[in-house]
Amino acid sequence: MQIIENSIVKEKLYIEKLENGMTVMIMPKKNIQKKYVIWGTHYGSIDHTFVVSGQEKETKVPDGVAHFLEHKMFEQPDGTNSLDTLSAMGVSANAYTTGDHTAYLFECTENFYEGLDELMSYVQNPHFTDENVEKEKGIIGQEIDMYDDHPYWKCYKNLMNCLYKNNRNKDRHSRNKKNNSKNR
Fold first, then answer.
1. Any idea where the domains of the chain sit in the sequence?
2. Given this model, what pLDDT does residue 132 score?
3. Which residues lie across from 16 on neighbouring strands?
4. Which CATH superfamily is domain 33-183 in?
5. 70 part of the active site
6. Residues 6 or more apart from 130 whose CB is under 8 A from it?
7. Active-site residue among 5, 11, 58, 70?
8. Among candidates 164, 153, 175, which has minimal Cα distance to 64?
């Protein structure tokens, strides 16, 4: 186990890589009641390919798949939504997608292990049906419309397109509903 110590704030970070490849980091905080978990994966909006375990050939996916998967992970086979389940436990949960990773997170003062079990369940056992996939396409379309209507986001996208003229990060910031319509 790797231990990183910050002598200024008197805290330690414990890092362990598990046999399955997952890296676990724990930072105990004395006299703090709130617990916080982030389960992240190195797959974000600029990732358009991946290699399935045990295969050599790359699989290509459409733009927006990381963000789409972020949204879909919460839905369960019994029709429940893990966000609702966590909320009923008093656990505040969310998720986000960046250019290079996607993360599922929660914070709580009580029901930590129950919340962790729920998080592990929905992240490791995604549930997809033709119906819930079609429904989610509409929801993401609405989210794209919301961003496209925000002046700050328009300025940010234009800046990124100028900064990343010949870089795959440019794709992350140039997407819009029109570009994603082939995926819907």
1. 33-183
2. 79
3. 24
4. Metalloenzyme, LuxS/M16 peptidase-like (3.30.830.10)
5. yes
6. none
7. 70
8. 175
